[in-house]
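Students often ask why we bother encoding 3D structure as a string. The short answer is that it lets us treat folding as translation between two languages. Here is a chain of 57 residues written in the first language.
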Amino acid sequence: MDQVYRIRYLRKFEGKSLRNIAKLTGHDFETVKKYVEKEDFNVEAKVKQKRAGKHAI
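And here it is in the second language, the structure alphabet:
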């Protein structure tokens, strides 16, 4: 998470471009873009689907 905060800081407070941040941090441009644009980093749990059991015929 420290890298995420650093990337967001560089963008918001230092006004660095996404490409420049990618170069400085060593992350891919798309990763930097994702970290800058995403607000909530909590992982959403996938809902498991229930299915009917097997019935003997």
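Translate back mentally: The two ends are 54 Å apart (CA to CA). Keep this in mind for the problem set.
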